[in-house]
Each structure stands twice: as structure tokens, then as C-alpha cells.
Specification:
heterodimer, A: alpha+beta, seven-stranded mixed β-sheet, about 25% strand, B: alpha+beta, Uridine Diphospho-n-acetylenolpyruvylglucosamine Reductase, domain 2, Enolase-like, domain 1, five-stranded antiparallel β-sheet
């Protein structure tokens, strides 16, 4: 479905094979744990068994004396760093918090918090040695959810932390609430007083993990000349480099980060965990050191996303949403930085809401520090808002999609941030879902129900930089620095091929290390196909301009008389004078030497993404099990560069959303131990739990991109939580306001078992 | 994980000798539980005794009276690919096809699932419903006992220090009898039972009255339960919704589950009732087909 005329693209919109495909399916692709260097030694990390404890002392002497042990490090080996904010691209942290997260300082703030690292000649010696490290803990009561953490008498994770209030002041009393922000507009009280219908509910969600299949790893070689080389699995080699420079107090130029193939990230592979520890160990023992996590470490000690508590109240008058009052409190984990602000800013953005009051609380608890996870904050917040909207549609007797359409945001509608939407595809996306075969088909049978929900994600722009080198045979090497987690090598090569009018197969893209290309922000925020795509486009234009100049030189005419078109050069008035791209590529030596195009951008018009989901479920009333019968997702993607990968992103987001809705949760004991830190009991959906997920690609081109590209990867995880809850309500008559909607919760609710 | 000796005895005699060499041992049959336990540090032993090379443990055979004796280490895949077992003992297939995925099933075995003695073991309620016994062997000789008497707690059983499971013995099933096993898991695969139930119903010759019934429930107590009272309550009854519901209630009353990440007490008691009723219903279908 395209709403505006799409240019007649030659490469964009096709489905070529990805450049990294063969290596991956034949097992030859190199991941972080595949690095084997001369003299490489293995390490292990000692982790806190307590969720909250003061570290009174650490005695490493016995471990250091053990056979095979080469180095032991603790927080005291890290330099003291300032409270400087480190923007990692998706989510910021202060350098000092990050330093304390990498190796615990005076306190262990969650079970699994790294306390010490050991390097040894083999992993068995390292594992034996960490058990010989004597840590004296004063165990403190843990705080495990936002409501407990916000109580006046709650144990404090950090007695020096005060709440930053909406006016920018610090609260008088110390608190676990790191920040309270507010968005206010219109006259909320008057709108509620004047409303036809008001619904109000509270909602709870649990901490969940991205569940990427490849555990974290980090290999570091601290050379004797004081330079540091790091091999790691990351979404942002430059973010890792920047964090290491700050944490280790090294000049950026002395650090080279080599991004390996990445087995999934979804936002969770931006921060650093093992890399700084491996670097310290390598500096101490003079050999390259490799650290890897197992699955339990990944669950307990990386960056999942927040659970939280939400209260929402929405008013309708004459079928229009007139007011919304929402309060969100999200778990940040051990250090501030939950995505609560993103959730607050996203949840109402598909709609026109004049009167609003939104409060957002960032709350620390004794759980791992959260990281980004696919549209961070938005799925939770939409779980609240999209259920209230469903209820309002029912109460007004409106079709739930028609109700959303009548209230849709469009170009010019202001979000709660005050920013007006540019050209967006919200209405087109709702209409596409309405017109779908799925929505047009009735849902029949007992215990079955249908739900819908919408979602919004900003998408990010940020910085990208690429170089394209033209080879004498007319092929091009595209050198980029955006690690590829979603098929972006293909998407970028396609955009360069389109710009130059050459074949996709003529472009060979390579993701290189931080010494080998200009700065690139993380692959996150759904930014890469858009922003790095824009850099690629500029590199293509650069090549075009240089080729025009060189053709003019060969033809002894003015550059204005030469034009670049259809993958070649031609004289505007002399039709005899033409050259293909490859012909001119073969004349580089005689026309000025090697031809390189460069593109560097700060992309500022990402073009937001909207999605509307329709889901049918069947609930077994005796066991409480929810089966997903049918699922359709409509999404505005701007322009689908590689439609197969766009569909894959849409389906992947839905799958993670289904898991989050139905079964996934960090299940904690009262002592603050995550009891289900394995893929057996942390229940992500398997292929047998999923139907085919039908995709409807809506293309409302982004006016801020040369090819109209919008980010596509994140928004598909936003609606499923609420869509499924709405479907379960339709099937059972019960509204589930707490995640996950697991068989346990459903059966206890339907049979009143508590 | 520290270094471990690996032994692969090729006879029962060699195995008994290995068990008495003064070292702490674990058996490696399928390896699908023990290797994970050792790697995660949940268990520590000096040696692993591979029991996949002992003839008595890797073969199975029908007895003259129609019973089935299965060597403790026979992989599930070998069992469920045998058409005669599929036809005569479908309840065995219910559980054999459920443990693990296809790769796991080519190694995993009844002896391993029973010896691991997890309260949620998926083969156990099926085998208890069928009236299975175990033959245990040691240097001192062999002994038989009913499967339900084998377990003493989570991960614990009556195996003595020098003893191992040699065979699982399924007695001949009565005429007009049918058995069924199923479990409830939150996903459709790759999960551990929240509750699992095996049930057998023996009908009279006319197919109208229940002459006997055996019901076993897993994951609701420290050991898999044989709820004799639930089966006994059906004796003399006709198979109806009411009589099945009463038996299901008795099974639910016998359940003493815990709340953990896999389910709550209330949910497990409720599911015991639901699954027992459904298992009886399916067992009845099979009895009538028999």
C-alpha cells in the first residue's frame, strides 16, 4: 500500500541475498567467542550472591597464589571517573555509575553484580580461583519493585541520591526515585469534568530480557605500547570505544574496537560489561584475555528492560479522546536510566489529545541496570494506554479501529512534547489494518477473541559515516561502521547501488573497526537503514560528482555539460559521448587517481513509525493457556528498501511481544534471586507457539530521507502486549492488567483461585 | 566444572566393580540431565559411569505373557519407532515422544528419567499408571520394586551406593483397558510439566463398568504420586462425567504442591483436577477402542 507515487526504483524494493548470509549458514562467520589469539588466556568473573549488600572487604590473595592464575582485578583497579554523562546512543549513564556497574565498588546492588575478575591459563583454573576470593558482605534488605522502592521507609540503594523533580530541583530527602518528570498541557480537570466516559485502571509489568541467542563476550589485548584492542559483540563499536576511554581514562585514539558478528542485540548490546574487565586483566598479565558469559550471567548481569507500575485515566466526549492522565513508574535497575521518558512520550503519540498530564518516575531497584530493548519503554506504556482506549471504544460502541482512526494524529498534530508530527502514516496504517483480510473475517467459536492495538516509535537519526571505494572493474567496496543486527549491510549496499544506478551485486559492504572509518553511532533506534542510508546516498552523490568532473576532463568539456544518469555519464549535447560507470572506473589512474566517495551525516528527520496489530486468540478456560490463532501487523515503513527484511523485522518484533505478553518475566524470590535464569524457565515463544504472522507494508515515504526510508525495527514490539490483552478480554470478559498473561494468571483469575 | 573420570563398563559385573572403587559416581545414560547438572555445578562427582554399553541395559523384549521389559538405557526414539509398542502400549509412546526434542530422544531413556528422580519426570506417571516395576541390580544380586516405591524426594531415590537400574518392567495390561498420559506446560514445547498425569482404566467385558483404575500425578509433591484412592473410587462405577470428576477431586486432594516459577499451589491443584479428568476421558476412549 503506497499513498504517494513511488519513484521507479531499480534496486530498492527488491529482495536480494544478504552479503553475510553464506558465511552465517555455513558456520564460518566469526563471532566474539571465535577469537583465538597467540597467548590468549581465559578469565572468569566473581558475581555477588546477594541482591543488596555492602562490600566490607575483598581478599584476593589466596586466588592470586593459585596455580595458573595470572591476574585478579576488582573495582580498585579502575581509575576514579567523574559523574560525566555518557550517551551510549540508546540510553545514557554516568561514567561513575557505569564504572560501578562493571565492577561493584562499595555495594553489590543486584545478584550477579560483578565483584572481581580473574585471568588464568585455562577457564577451569579461573573458575576455581574466583571461589578462592574472600568477600565480606553486610547483607541488606533488597528492594524489588517500584512501589516498594518509592515508599518513604524503603531501604536506599544509594543514600546520597535525591529525586530530580520536574522543576529541576533536588528533593530534600534521599530517595530511590532518581527523577520525576512531568508533561502537562490543556486543562485536564475541566476535560474530565466535561467527559461522556472516563476509564481508569492500574497496570503492572515485569522485567523482561531481549533474549538474544549469543551471550556477551569480550576479548582484550592491552599492548605494551599502551594501546588497547578489543574484540566484542556489540551494536556500537564506537560506543564501546567511548565508554572504554572514559572508564579506563585512555585517549580515544589508543583504543581500537573490532566489532565481531553479532548474534542478536535488540538494544541489549550497547553497554559494556566484560570488555573493561578483560582490558584490566590484560594490562595486569600482559596477555590477551577473553571473558564470556553463560546464559545465567546474561539474565542476571546484563541489561534487560524495565517492569513497572502504571496508572492511566482517559476521557472521551462525543467519540473524541479529550483528556489523558497517566503516571508511569519504571524500574531502572541498580542505577538510574529507565526508558520511562520514552514510554511517556510515545504512548499517546498515535492520537490527538489536547489535555494531558503525564508523570514519569525513574526508580532504582536491586535488579540489573536496564538497557535498551526494542522501542524501550513504549511497549509497557502502550500496554496501559491501548487497553484503556479499547475499553473506551467498547463503552462508546465504536469499532476499535474506527475509534482509533477518528482520534488519529496526522501531520501537524502536536505530541505531548509540543513537537508537531511531520508527514506520518498513522491514518493509512489504521486503514490498512481495517481493510485486511484478517479484520474483515469474522472471529468465531467459543473462548476465542480478537484484539487490536496501535503503537508509535520516534526512530532515531544521529551520526553516520561511510566511505565507498570504486574499483577498476566497476565494483564498489562500501566501508561502514554500523554493526549489522538486522540486514543493514544489504539495505545499505542497495541504497548505494540505487544512488549510483549500478547492480546490487557490484557493491560489497563491510563493517569495519573503529580505526578504519569515521564515527558511527550505535545500530539502535531503528536508525541504520535510515541514517547510514543517508550517508551512503551522500557517498554515492560524491562519487557521481567526481565522475562528472573526470568525464569532463576526458571529454575536454565543462562539468556542466556532463550529467550522471542511469549508472553512467553522458554529454548533455553530444550523444556520442557516453561512458558506463565501469568504463570510467577503469580510467581512474589517468583521471586523478583512486576514486572514493564519502558520506558523513547527522540525520535529523528520522520519520516516526506507526504500527497497528490485529490478533485472534483462543483461551483454554480450564488451563488458562492462550493460543495465538492469527496475527496481522500493518506498519508504515516509509519505503521498504528490502521488503523481506522489513517483514522479518515486523514479525520478529511481534514474536518478542507475544513472549512478553504471555510468558516472559524475571521471576524473583524474596531474597532478590532471579529463579528462572535459563531459557528453560524464562519462557520465550518457540516456533510451535506462533502462527504465521501476516505483514502489511504501508509506505508513506519519509520526507526527511532521499528514498523515503523510515526505521522499521522497533515499533512492531509496541502494540502486541495490549493487542493480546484486548483479545483475551474479548475471549474471556476478563481484563488482564498485569503481565505476563500466563496460564497461571489466567486460570487463577478465571477460577478465582487466589 | 572440574576434571572427571569417564568409565564405560561393557558388562554389569564391570559396572558393579566401578561402583565400588571408592569414588563418587554418577551414571551417564542419555546424559541429558547429568551433563547439565555437572556443568552448572549442581552436582559434583569423581567419575561418570557410561551405562550405554551394558547389553542388559540397551535392549528390550516382550515377555511370554505380554509384558514389556525395557533396558534402562534404551533411547526413547528406539521405543517410539517400534510399531508393536505403538500399537499395544500407546501410553508409553505418550511420554516417550514428549521428553526433549528429536536429538534428545535419540539418547534420553527411561532409566535416566527415573534415576534423575525429578518430581515432574514425564515418563513416571505414565509408567505408574501401567503398573510398571523396576529391576535394580548390584554386586549382591537383583531386586524388583513397584515404580511408585522408588522415589524418596526431589532427586532422591532408594538406589543403594552400589546399585543401578537395569530394566523397567511393564506388566501385561488387562483386556478392555486403556491408558493415557499428558502434561500441562505453558508453551507448546521445551518446558517442564506444571502438572502431569497418567491414568489407566480397566473396563469389564461389556465395556460398561470400571473394574480397575490407576492414576498417577507428577509435579505436585516431592515425588511423583500414585493416587490409589482416586483409582479405587472408580471401581464398580460406570465411566461418567460425575465418576471421573469425583476421581479427579480425590487426585487434587492428594496434591501437595509448592509455588515456584513454574506454577502456583492453587494452579497446580486446579490443574491436577483438570488433567486427571481429561486423562481418564482419553484412557476410556482407548479402552473402548481396545
Amino acid at each position: 500500500m503506497t499513498t504517494t507515487e513511488k519513484p521507479d526504483y531499480k534496486v530498492i524494493g527488491t529482495r536480494p541475498i544478504r552479503p553475510d548470509g553464506v558465511e552465517k549458514v555455513t558456520g564460518k562467520a566469526l563471532y566474539g567467542a571465535d577469537i583465538h589469539l597467540p597467548d590468549l588466556v581465559q578469565g572468569a568473573v566473581l558475581r555477588s550472591p546477594h541482591a543488596h549488600a555492602r562490600i566490607l572487604s575483598i581478599d584476593t590473595s589466596a586466588a592470586e597464589a593459585m596455580p595458573g592464575v595470572l591476574a585478579v582485578v576488582t573495582h580498585s583497579d579502575l581509575p576514579v571517573v567523574a559523574d560525566k554523562v555518557l550517551d551510549m546512543g540508546e540510553g545514557a549513564s554516568t561514567a561513575s555509575d557505569m564504572s560501578k556497574n562493571v565492577l561493584a565498588a562499595d555495594k553489590a546492588l543486584y545478584r550477579g553484580h560483578a565483584v572481581a575478575g580473574v585471568a588464568a591459563t585455562n577457564v577451569h583454573d579461573a573458575l576455581t580461583a574466583i571461589e578462592a576470593i574472600k568477600v565480606e558482605y553486610e547483607v541488606l534488605p533488597p528492594v524489588l519493585n517500584v512501589q516498594d522502592a518509592m515508599r518513604d521507609d524503603a531501604p536506599l540503594l544509594d543514600a546520597s541520591r535525591h529525586t530530580r523533580t520536574p522543576t529541576g530541583e533536588e528533593s530534600e530527602n534521599a530517595s530511590n526515585v532518581a527523577a520525576h518528570n512531568r508533561f502537562e498541557g490543556g486543562d485536564v480537570e475541566a476535560a474530565f469534568a466535561d467527559a461522556d466516559i472516563v476509564v481508569e485502571r492500574e497496570f503492572d509489568t515485569k522485567m523482561v530480557h531481549q533474549g538474544y541467542i549469543e551471550p556477551h563476550n569480550g576479548t582484550a589485548n592491552w599492548n605494551s605500547d599502551g594501546t588497547l584492542t578489543v574484540w566484542t559483540s556489540t551494536q556500537g563499536a564506537f560506543a564501546v570505544r567511548g565508554a572504554l576511554a572514559e572508564l579506563l581514562q585512555l585517549p580515544v585514539s589508543r583504543i581500537r574496537v573490532i566489532p565481531m558478528e553479532i548474534g542478536g542485540g535488540f538494544g541489549g548490546k550497547i553497554g559494556v560489561y566484560l570488555e573493561p574487565v578483560a582490558a584490566l586483566l590484560s594490562r595486569k598479565c600482559g596477555r590477551p584475555v577473553q571473558l564470556t558469559m553463560d546464559r545465567t550471567d546474561v539474565f542476571q548481569a546484563t541489561g534487560p528492560t524495565s517492569g513497572g507500575h502504571m496508572r492511566g485515566k482517559i476521557a472521551v466526549k462525543d467519540g473524541k479522546i479529550t483528556a489523558a492522565e497517566v503516571s508511569l513508574a519504571f524500574e531502572a535497575g541498580a542505577f538510574p536510566g529507565s526508558p520511562v521518558m520514552a514510554g511517556a512520550m510515545c504512548m499517546l503519540s498515535p492520537y490527538e489529545v489536547e489535555n494531558f498530564k503525564v508523570d514519569a518516575y525513574d526508580v532504582v531497584v536491586n535488579k540489573p541496570k536496564v538497557a535498551a530493548y526494542r522501542a524501550p519503554g513504549a511497549p509497557n506504556a502502550s500496554f496501559c494506554v491501548e487497553q484503556l482506549i479499547d475499553e473506551l471504544a467498547r463503552e462508546t460502541g465504536a469499532d476499535p479501529l474506527q475509534f482509533r482512526l477518528s482520534n488519529s494524529a496526522r501531520e501537524g498534530t502536536r505530541m505531548i512534547t509540543g513537537v508537531a508530527h511531520p508527514r506520518i502514516g498513522q491514518e493509512e496504517t489504521v486503514q490498512a489494518a481495517q481493510a485486511s483480510d484478517h479484520y474483515q473475517s469474522p472471529i468465531e467459536g467459543p473462548n476465542r477473541g480478537r484484539g487490536v492495538a496501535g503503537g508509535f516509535w520516534f526512530n532515531a537519526g544521529m551520526q553516520s559515516s561511510v566511505v565507498a571505494s570504486v574499483n577498476p572493474d566497476g565494483t564498489v567496496n562500501l566501508i561502514e561502521g554500523s554493526t549489522d543486527i538486522g540486514g543493514t549491510r544489504a539495505a545499505l549496499a542497495m541504497q548505494l547501488a540505487e544512488t549510483l544506478g549500478i547492480e546490487y551485486d557490484s557493491v560489497r559492504p563491510t563493517v569495519v573497526d573503529t580505526d578504519s572509518v569515521g564515527h558511527n553511532d550505535v545500530t539502535g533506534g531503528s536508525r541504520t537503514a535510515y541514517a547510514s542510508g543517508q550517508a551512503v546516498y551522500e557517498a554515492g552523490l560524491d562519487i557521481q560528482q567526481q565522475m562528472v568532473a573526470r568525464a569532463a576532463q576526458l571529454w575536454e568539456c565543462e562539468a556542466e555539460d556532463v550529467e550522471y544518469a542511469d549508472g553512467g555519464l553522458r554529454h548533455t549535447s553530444d550523444s556520442e559521448k557516453t561512458m558506463t560507470f565501469a568504463e570510467l572506473a577503469g580510467k581512474q589512474m589517468e583521471t586523478g587517481g583512486p576514486l572514493q566517495g564519502r558520506g558523513s551525516v547527522v540525520a535529523r528527520s528520522p520519520g516516526a513509525a506507526f504500527g497497528v496489530h490485529v490478533v485472534d486468540v483462543e483461551v483454554d478456560p480450564d488451563t488458562g493457556k492462550v493460543d495465538i490463532l492469527r496475527y496481522t501487523i500493518a506498519q508504515d515503513v516509509g519505503t521498504a528498501v528490502h521488503p523481506a527484511y522489513v517483514e522479518g523485522q515486523m514479525q520478529g518484533g511481534v514474536v518478542q511481544g507475544i513472549g512478553w505478553a504471555l510468558n516472559e518475566e524475571y521471576y524473583y524470590g524474596e531474597d532478590g534471586r532471579m529463579e528462572n535464569a535459563s531459557f528453560l524457565d524464562y519462557r520465550m515463544p518457540t516456533s510451535l507457539d506462533l502462527p504465521m504472522i501476516d505483514t502489511i507494508i504501508v509506505e508513506v515515504p519519509n520526507p526527511g530521507h532521499p528514498f523515503g526510508v523510515r526505521g522499521v525495527g522497533e515499533v512492531p514490539i509496541v502494540p502486541p502486549l495490549a493487542a493480546i490483552a484486548n483479545a483475551v478480554h474479548d475471549a474471556t470478559g476478563h481484563r488482564f492488567t498485569e503481565l505476563p498473561i500466563s496460564p497461571r494468571r489466567v486460570v487463577e483469575e478465571l477460577h478465582n483461585l487466589q | 566444572m572440574k576434571e572427571i573420570d569417564y568409565l564405560a563398563p561393557s558388562s554389569l559385573g564391570e559396572a558393579y566393580a566401578a561402583l565400588q572403587n571408592g569414588k563418587t559416581s554418577a551414571f551417564l545414560a542419555g546424559g541429558t540431565d547429568i551433563i547439565v547438572q555437572l556443568r552448572e555445578g549442581r552436582k559434583e562427582v569423581d567419575q561418570l559411569i557410561d551405562v550405554k554399553h551394558i547389553p542388559e541395559l540397551v535392549s528390550y523384549a516382550w515377555t511370554d505373557d505380554g509384558g514389556l521389559v525395557i533396558g534402562a538405557s534404551v533411547p526413547f526414539a528406539e521405543i517410539y519407532e517400534d510399531d508393536e509398542i505403538v500399537r499395544r502400549l500407546p501410553c508409553v509412546i505418550d511420554c516417550a515422544t514428549l521428553v526433549g526434542g528429536i536429538q534428545i530422544q535419540s539418547r534420553a531413556c527411561f532409566g535416566g528419567n527415573i534415576g534423575n528422580s525429578g518430581p515432574a519426570a514425564d515418563t513416571v506417571p505414565a509408567l505408574i499408571a501401567l503398573g510398571a516395576t523396576l529391576t535394580l541390580g548390584s554386586a549382591d544380586g537383583a531386586r524388583d520394586l513397584p515404580l511408585e516405591d522408588f522415589f524418596t524426594g526431589p532427586g532422591q531415590n532408594v538406589l543403594g551406593p552400589g546399585e543401578l537400574i537395569i530394566t523397567v518392567n511393564i506388566p501385561p495390561q488387562p483386556a478392555n483397558s486403556g491408558s493415557f498420559f499428558h502434561r500441562f506446560i505453558p508453551r507448546n514445547e521445551m518446558d517442564i510439566a506444571v502438572v502431569n498425569v497418567g491414568a489407566r482404566i480397566d473396563l469389564d467385558a461389556g465395556g460398561e463398568r470400571i473394574e480397575g483404575a490407576r492414576i498417577s500425578v507428577g509435579a505436585v509433591a516431592p515425588v511423583p504420586l500414585f493416587v490409589a484412592a482416586a483409582g479405587d473410587a472408580l471401581v464398580g462405577e460406570t465411566p461418567t462425567e460425575d465418576s471421573f470428576a469425583r476421581a479427579a477431586d480425590i487426585a487434587a486432594e492428594a496434591a501437595t504442591p509448592i509455588t515456584d516459577m513454574r506454577g502456583s499451589i492453587a494452579q497446580r491443584v486446579h490443574l491436577t483436577r483438570v488433567l486427571t479428568y481429561r486423562a481418564l476421558d482419553r484412557a476410556l476412549e482407548r479402552a473402548r477402542e481396545a
